[in-house]
Design brief:
This protein is mainly α. Helices cover 69% and strands 2% of the residues. The chain is built from 14 helices and two strands; from the N terminus they run αααααββααααααααα. Helix 3 packs parallel to helix 14 (347-365), helix 6 (117-135) packs antiparallel against helix 7 (143-163) and helix 8 packs across helix 13.
């Protein structure tokens, strides 16, 4: 027992304990909110237990990953990328539908346990793309390398889109853009990308998006229009739920809360607004922002491009999910099925988020440079 506590003490001395504490604080708040939803009998206690187990397993995975040199993990892309791809492709044949979307069959059931492969594919993509960027760092702006990098980024976006999970596909796109931009791509390519997006938007609207997706966008601008009543139902009740909490909230337990569809998952922020009020929502945003900023500080601390790229990738994953999810709850963006990191219920989401934290911790622990080292490149 003495040796065990000695190991813990040694680990705490070398790890980024602030990042761990902030992550656990977020998870703790999320579990408390889920317990409140279960207290209202809107979800079963089993979901709360699953969240607790996933958090514990995620923390263990983060610690294990943090003890493995991120350089070694990234170079093992020939192992984890094919496995992640295989699991995603498997959903096209035996995937399970858990959302209302008919086309979204993004889940697998393995030994009775639900698994969302796209969540783990995010971690694999961050590692492989970070490694790719580090290999071409000196000549990143050559036409050949830009095309290869774009092809690398397009694979997960298109694959997850075809799977039917457009929310996750959008997160992959944000991860790709953030990492590519941070790696030093020339402005001419960025301007060309903006031009390509401008040309693609009409094609996306008229040729790719289905009627349901279009209505979700239109409902944001016309929330009172009767024709959007059903499509805006979830956000309408989410807005009322947030507003009814006032400054301090009604409390988490032994209070009757408004029912909002998926309030334990995509719309947990709306429950937070009612239960812990404006102050609680600010606390949630502050915790998530602090985690994202700490990851960026760790990126600045790292002396090599690979570690920097990994940190930027994990930052992009958390920041984009947080902004989009909170935007959905505030009716700023349409509902596209993106979870709130650490807080939303979901074992796969929690586990993959902590795996991302493990990669950042590895970057922190395997570098001894100071935060403002002059020769960081």
């Amino acid at each position: 027992m003495k040796k065990f506590f000695g190991y813990i003490g040694d680990y705490c001395k070398t790890t980024d304990y602030w990042l761990i504490l902030l992550s656990l604080a977020c998870s703790g708040l999320g579990i408390a909110l889920l317990m409140g939803i279960a207290d209202d009998n809107y979800i079963s206690q089993g979901k709360v237990i699953t969240q607790i187990i996933a958090t514990g397993a995620g923390l263990l995975a983060a610690i294990i990953l943090s003890k493995i040199d991120y350089r070694f993990t990234a170079k093992m892309w020939k192992l984890h990328v094919p496995l992640a791809l295989f699991l995603v492709i498997l959903t096209f044949f035996i995937g399970k539908q858990v959302s209302e979307s008919i086309d979204d069959r993004a889940w697998l059931e393995i030994f009775g346990i639900g698994l969302q492969p796209s969540e783990f594919f995010k971690i694999s993509f961050i590692m492989s793309f970070a490694y790719h960027l580090s290999l071409v760092r000196e000549d990143i702006n050559s036409t050949k390398n830009i095309l290869l990098l774009c092809a690398h980024g397009a694979v997960p976006v298109l694959l997850i889109h075809l799977q039917g999970d457009d929310g996750s596909a959008l997160i992959f796109a944000f991860i790709f853009v953030f990492m590519l931009f941070a790696a030093g791509v020339a402005w001419k390519y960025i301007l060309m990308a903006f031009g390509a997006v401008a040309v693609a938007l009409p094609v996306l609207w008229f040729a790719i998006m289905n009627n349901d997706q279009k209505l979700r966008f239109l409902a944001i601008f016309h929330p009172d229009d009767p024709q959007f009543k059903d499509i805006f139902y979830q956000q309408y009740h989410g807005n009322i739920s947030i507003g009814s909490g006032g400054v301090w909230g009604k409390g988490i337990f032994h209070v009757e809360h408004r029912f909002v569809p998926e309030m334990h998952n995509d719309f947990i922020f709306s429950f937070a607004g009612e239960a812990i009020g404006f102050v609680g929502c600010i606390a949630v945003i502050a915790l998530l922002a602090a985690i994202c900023l700490k990851i960026l500080f760790n990126s600045r601390r790292c002396p090599d491009a690979l570690g920097q790229n990994i940190c930027v990738g994990v930052f992009a994953m958390l920041a984009s999910q947080s902004i989009i999810n909170i935007g959905m709850n505030l009716s700023v963006v349409p509902v596209i099925g993106v979870t709130l990191p650490f807080l939303s219920a979901g074992g796969s989401s929690v586990l993959s988020t902590y795996m991302g934290m493990g990669l950042v911790l590895s970057v922190y622990m395997y570098n001894t440079k100071g935060l403002f080292a002059d020769n960081i490149g």
